[in-house]
Design goal:
24% strand, three-stranded antiparallel beta sheet, four-stranded antiparallel beta sheet, elongated, 160 residues, alpha+beta, 4 helices
């Protein structure tokens, strides 16, 4: 039986595993602040601040276990008439973007992404609610995908 999130005729392309590091580094910094603050306050003010440090540490461990699974769950597939983007573990989503509905395609990379050799392809359609982005691509793949999607979008739009 086929799932609505895994069509039988689709070969999924995966994002780079480096996306895990790109997501864990900021999370580690975010959780380090309350851990350090909790330890310092527990040692100087009172032992109840161990709760702050422990909670932040548990959340960091949970994030460190969850993020690699989330990254492995991200996939995209180019089909004849549309692009499929799948993501999520517990709450799975499948976004179908018809090439003829694309208005433009962006490639973005922040400082950490550039350092790790990653880029994000962002698709913009007529619908403001469409969340069509593919994070964690190598820059060469992002550029190739951008050019391919833009040319397919122009071809489909010209045919209308």
């Amino acid at each position: 039986m086929t799932s609505p999130f895994d069509p039988h005729d689709v070969t999924w392309s995966r994002v780079s595993p480096r996306l895990t590091a790109a997501r864990l580094i900021p999370a580690s910094i975010t959780f380090a602040v309350p851990v350090v603050a909790g330890v310092v306050l527990a040692l100087t003010v009172g032992r109840w601040f161990w709760l702050l440090a422990g909670t932040a540490a548990v959340l960091w461990v949970w994030t460190a276990l969850l993020v690699p699974r989330q990254v492995r769950a991200i996939g995209y597939a180019e089909r004849e008439d549309d692009l499929l983007i799948r993501k999520g573990i517990m709450f799975v989503s499948l976004t179908v973007v018809p090439y003829g509905r694309m208005q433009y395609v962006d490639v973005e990379a922040g400082p950490l992404d550039r350092r790790l050799g990653l880029a994000t392809v962002q698709l913009h359609t007529a619908s403001p609610g469409t969340d069509a982005q593919i994070p964690g691509l190598r820059p060469q793949e992002a550029a190739r995908l951008r050019d391919r999607l833009a040319s397919r979008g122009e071809a489909r739009l010209a045919g209308l």
